[in-house]
Design a protein that fits this description.
Layout: H1 2-5, H2 23-26, H3 63-69, H4 95-104, H5 116-130, H6 142-158, H7 167-180, H8 186-192, H9 205-208, H10 214-227, H11 234-244, H12 260-272, H13 277-285, E1 296-297, E2 301-306, H14 319-327, E3 332-337, H15 349-355, H16 364-372, E4 378-382, H17 383-386, H18 388-391, H19 394-400, H20 406-409, E5 417-418, E6 421-427, H21 434-444, E7 448-453, E8 478-484, E9 498-504, H22 524-535, H23 541-557, H24 565-577, H25 580-594
Parallel strand pairs: 1-5, 2-3, 2-6, 3-4, 6-7
Antiparallel strand pairs: 7-8, 8-9
Helix pairs in contact: 4-6, 5-7, 6-8, 6-12, 10-11, 10-12, 11-13, 13-21, 14-23, 14-25, 22-23, 23-24
Protein name: Anthranilate phosphoribosyltransferase
InterPro entries: Nuc_phospho_transferase (IPR035902)
Keywords: Glycosyltransferase, Transferase
Length: 596
Amino acid sequence: MKALLSPEPSFSISSLQIKRPTYSDALPSSCLRFPLTDFNGHPRRRKLLPHGGGLKMKAVLDSAMMEQFGLKESDIKNPALSSTYRRSEIPKANPTVLDAQARVCTGPTQTRPLSEEQAFKVFDTILRSARGELKGEAPVSKAQLGAFFAGMTIRANAFPEETQWSEGEKRAMDVFWPLLVRALPPDVLFIADPEGSLLGTSNSVGPSFVGNESKEMRLVGALREVLAGGHLGYEEVKGVLRDVLPLGSEDGGLASGVSESLLSAFLIGQRMNRETDRELKAYCLAFDDELGGAPVADVKSLTHYGEPYDGNTRFFRSTLFVATVRACYGESSLLHGVEWMPPKGGVTEEQMLKFMGAKTSLSVHQAKELIEDEKAGFAYLSLREARPSLYSLVGMREHIKKRPPLATTEKVQQFVRATGKESIVAGFYHEGYEEPLLMLMRRRGVHSGLVVKGEEGALSMTTRVRAATASKGFPVNYCSGFRSLSSETALEADGVSRQSFNLEVDARNYGFEPTETPRTDRSVSKNIELGLAALRGEKGAAYDRIVLNAGIVDHLLGCDGAEDVVVAMERAKEAIDSGKALKKLLNYIEISRKMK
């Protein structure tokens, strides 16, 4: 750790000179074209942008590669925004209630009570929707009703006075509750007043509500504790999740017969109460055996990258390109995520790979093969294939609005194992979740773990100088983690000795000039354009971020050959300037497309 904590200020990334031809010199200039159909044979959506906005990338493919990839000159997909990847079959949520959920379905200090005007509007919307009288906007879904009333109940039962019900909310409830009690179904009435103590004697449903069958009864019993501000044990949470998932339809219907309102109340309620370690472990591990045991890749090192599944909406997302760099010197990576995820619905690795023509419906065994293949050395797995039960919640999560516990635990997964050392790297934003993430990594038994507060809560550390008016909490580029030590004799409970660390990475200490982070603003193609230009060796902000993130991660995880952070940075730069990193990405696209 000494090399990173006390860097040599004389080191300059820009001063390193690799005396060899670059990959871009070896191939003629052309445009990278991507196929118009996905791997289900469906046509890709095409959007015409003003000013003829095509895909203006400086990436290169010669004619032989174009033929090898099965690409045609006419196969061009215009730039698309991440929002276009939202599945159209997911029903729209009611915007009025969704806005209210953003205010009241959050933590004890973050909650913002509704004003009287807001509260009257929300309850009027709920009433008219329940009566079938709502016109001009989407109905309030069952999942929304469960999440909203769970938020109201937990605030009344367990939150500090300043985030409990406002006077305006109380007056609105006094007016609307006698009407709502005749219009809402029993499961929602239970969520709104589980003990019959919040809203007077007009609701006798809550205290006697038990649910309809054994699975729902189990959920109701657990939810009573959650709505009171309490916590559950590991087996209880795990049992509930395995009872009710997967959901049975694209619109969030439950194949188990359990009420959608009850499940959404359970998920957001646990997050509002701030999950315990036992609860987080249950969410993290509940479906580890869903598809059987994880395949084991025969590699010396495997890093599992846990990016936030809901993507980036503002800044360049670098992890896909970092993985190609690290693969050049034997540091294999497994990326995982989804095509689109609320609440942000930002740019994801799956969108980028799909846009470039790679196959994104790989099985875990195919991902293992790509990791082992020296031509690629990394892989991407969609939650859709890796954990169908958890993927089935995507639609419901949009209607819940706020992030449930799974938003934390899905970043700490091991869909493929390795014969060699394993590490997990995960992004975080809200202070207080860095230690739970590291706890889950230790529970996974990996040799090294790292949490990074990158830009947008993602993994990308920046070369931008921290603003004097930066928000409270950990700064961007804050890192915390552990790595295994073979020389220590004191072992932790799992038999592995580890060294812990935390620090703030200042890119200026490693020779990077401060630069503003490139904005992508939900543009999938812009993110690809920046990444490919950097992999061609084009110097600039994106190039610097890829080098910085590869070198720092290698060093902090204790990777072979990265004991000195200066050497780690130089190694990452050489992987780019030699053209090897770009070749890894092109190989990955080609190999994945041929997989059946």
